[in-house]
Specification:
Strands 1, 2, 3, 4, 5, 6, 7 and 8 form an 8-stranded mixed beta sheet that branches. This protein is globular. The N and C termini lie far apart (50 Å). It has 4 helices and 8 strands, in the order E-E-E-E-H-E-E-E-H-H-H-E. The longest helix has 13 residues. It is an alpha+beta fold and 182 residues long.
Length: 182
């Protein structure tokens, strides 16, 4: 193969169209429990779609489209607010995924973890029109509940990356500044 067969540098920008947001609440572990040394456990908000929506009855994470000229992190914060009423305290960029929609092509998704509240009992969300029910579940239970394999995989990444309550040594790379988000 000659040196001219491929350009020296190929730039192929990826423009994500969707955000998936795992809404997390850190629940303290009561003293005396076998796992109390960890100090906390994550609870994940899963939402059930209403009868008059696509995929009626399915359980999912918060997600939505990135609007024109909107940054992915701004879309994540907006979608959490619109679908749950929650303000995001901390936001982490976790991974990216792709999926195919027949007739519409491959869509790329930026996956975030959004921490809401801190300690105490999880609070009830104010559901938007798309959803009829919400549950706070453990990470393993949320992995079993969600319909989409990409969401299950994202939850595995979150379980690993945020196992200590934050991103540990990767905090400076994964944590998104909320300054300037809408």
């Amino acid at each position: 193969m000659s040196d001219t067969a491929w350009p020296a540098r190929v730039i192929a920008p990826v423009t994500p169209e969707v955000v998936d947001v795992c809404v997390l609440h850190r629940e303290p572990i009561a003293r005396g429990r076998a796992d109390a040394g960890r100090g906390h456990r994550w609870r994940v908000l899963v939402l059930q779609r209403g009868a008059d929506t696509r995929c009626a009855g399915s359980w999912e994470l918060v997600h939505g489209r990135i609007e024109h000229e909107e940054r992915a992190e701004d879309a994540a914060v907006r979608e959490v607010r619109e679908e749950t009423g929650f303000a995001v305290a901390r936001l982490y960029c976790v991974t990216m995924s792709a999926f195919y929609l027949p007739g519409r092509g491959v869509k790329t998704t930026v996956v975030f973890a959004a921490v809401v509240g801190d300690g105490g009992a999880p609070i009830a969300p104010h559901l938007g029109a798309e959803h009829v029910s919400a549950r706070w579940l453990s990470l393993p239970a949320a992995m079993r509940a969600v319909t989409w394999p990409r969401e299950r995989e994202a939850l595995q990444h979150i379980a690993h990356l945020l196992r200590s309550g934050d991103a540990g040594v990767a905090e400076d790379v994964l944590r998104v500044s909320l300054e300037g988000t809408r």
